[in-house]
Batch of 2 targets.
Target 1
Amino acid sequence: MKKRDIILIISLLLISGLGYCLSVNRLAGGSAYIYIEGNLYDVYDLKQPQTIRIEGRGGIIDDVVIENNGIYVKSATCPYRECVKSGRISRDGESICCLPAQILIVVRSDEGTGYDAITK
């Protein structure tokens, strides 16, 4: 191997390691914000286990479960059930969307970093 090959390999390893660190170090979520048709429906504490039945647009019903500091859609009456397939979310910024019902679930950290993005 040439010197340039070694530099390239080390650079790629550093970049991939940085990407991994940034994705793993997300804050744990503290609250779940549920929106229906773009309007805030309610805010739920992820530390309080419960089951919530939400009726969205067109009478579509999503059964949402909060347990183990996470939230997921257990069942839904929408056609493709993509929201159910999304699985459990628990980290800041993660979301579940039921498009036919226009239901959006977003997890947000109670510790907030104060920055959403930094641009120049």
Target 2
Amino acid sequence: MNDSLKTLLAFISGAAAGAAIGILLAPEKGAETRRKLLERAKDMSDGLTDAAKEKYDEFLEWKDTMIDGAEETVKSTVNNGMHSAGQTYNKVENKVKNAQL
């Protein structure tokens, strides 16, 4: 887990704890307190959902970058191998021709 996600989770947890304590200690009716707790919980849930979506999108972008890089490496390796094989074939062919003379 990276530092920005840890910081976000710590902030949300702290905000939730503070809000819950504040609401529970406030001199209001039970129905109003429950409504406020539910509202705060929904806000926190929305925040966590947004953070998770953002991290998921970052992961997809990283994955695509890794795949593209791997594809380029494979293509380059195959091309280099084919070039080397062609050179080796030409050398062997020339030696065979020279040996027949």
